[in-house]
Amino acid sequence: MLIDTHCHLDAPEFDQDREAVAQAALAAGVQCIVIPAVERNNFATVKQLRDQYQHCVMALGIHPLFVDRAQPQDLQVLEQQIAEEVEAGGIVAVGEIGLDFFIEDYDREQQEFYFIEQLKLARRYDLPVLLHVRRSVDAVLKQVRRFKVRGIAHAFNGSQQQAEAFIKLGFKLGFGGAMTYERALKIRKLAEVLPLEAIVLETDAPDIPPEWLGHHGRNSPDQLWKIAEVLAEIRKENIAQIAAITTKNAIDILPKLADLCTPPHVLL
Questions:
Q1: Whole-number pLDDT of residue 208
Q2: Any idea which fold 2-267 has?
């Protein structure tokens, strides 16, 4: 069994067949799907999916590429909802949050404001974080060191030195569809040499489709087993071991998974 630690099942790309996608994931051995919010306007949708599907859990946060649509009062709403969900035991992380320096001229100061405020919330409520780190690894590392949080560096694509810095801070690194492309030499090398105990699996569906779906294909959580098989091939390890350890890694870093959607036997 596997855990998809990052999947935007709420995305409009799934509006026509979301039920089928969710059930296909279960049939493919994906026992749990983490759905991170990206802005205040989709908090309710993410909650509804968490309630609708027993194998789905949620994180709440404001994505760095949505800060231009955010208002400071959104942080108050976010804190209120986090507080309610922490009390009810219904949230696994603060996310998706972070920084994105890929798009030139996108307001970095505004991104950093929302990122820092959400790191404060993660620390205040003792929650892990789901980090967006595109072209911003060092800047993200600076802030997570400052606030002493833990979590997952989603879709990791930094250097080995940066990976080791995250691992030293107690983070897990998310690997998914990008790793399946043979020309993705840097990511594949990281997948090979990093400790397996530092790796979690993800799809980022509907984005980052694996090689067999093509760059313009729609990714989905049922692809996670084939992604895991690629990791096994890269590391020359048994797929059962890959599945067991990456699942354990996900539970270790997102401990609420053990209560919300994980069969007891995977904890052994």
A1: 97
A2: TIM Barrel (3.20.20)
